[in-house]
Amino acid sequence: MFLRELLKSKCPGSCPKPLAISVALVFCACVAPALMTQNVLAQSANDDVDVHQLHLPRTYLRYLPVMLDGARLMAADEHCAQFLSGDLNIDKSTQTHPVFRYQCRDPAGQTYRWHIDGQSLEVLDDTRAGGRISFDELAAEYEKAREQARQLAAERQAQIDALQLERQQVAAEREAERLAREQLAAEQQEQARRARLWQKCQTLLAEQTDDMIEREWLTLMQPEPEVSSGRVRFALDFNARNLNGQALKYRAFCDAKIEGEALTVEIHPRALAQAASDSGTEVD
Q1: Ranges of each domain in the chain
Q2: pLDDT at site 3
């Protein structure tokens, strides 16, 4: 039925004459019931697609509900930030098999068009093996792409984390090596200092006991010193004889302050020094 005949039969004398064939005129209150159901009208009011954005020749008006369904699918696609319009691809359509053409604006503001089969509501795409794809399949592709992107991002983050961990480990190893070198240098310096103190202790003690008879050194090698909070102390044992030839047994102590190398020497009978040592005290 032609549009003019529809107008004449539905509202004789009460409707304006159509000046152009468009969906805007078709949705005049007097002809809308002949074109789509009330359910379609209710849905279109709540969707992003306005029926005034859809345009069909009068010979294809019966496909308007299907065209509206396709437009909603197009508008719901995540690539479509704004639905712009829909019309008929005359070159690819027949009276029994229409092909709709929809135009959208993507999130980047670029305009693009898709052709959709009016029977299956599939997107026509010559780059695909079957030449078409459904919106459900497109949504699955999007989700698959997102999942791949998430996996790639996770792998990259894992690589970054591993690299950062490796760098931290290398830094920690280098710091440990530095501390070990510093500790070794400090120990070597302390050992060298103790060696100097030991030599000075031997020299000083030899000078102070030079007049003793038959002096005999029992401590010949550098002993492990007693180290306290404020000093380093060496103990040296030696024997001698008095003027009457009586054997004398001594223990000498050489003390040096931690911050310096000046020595003080004390000489005590070895038995007394040993008793004090056993009791944990010092010889007075």
Answers
A1: 3-132, 192-279
A2: 34
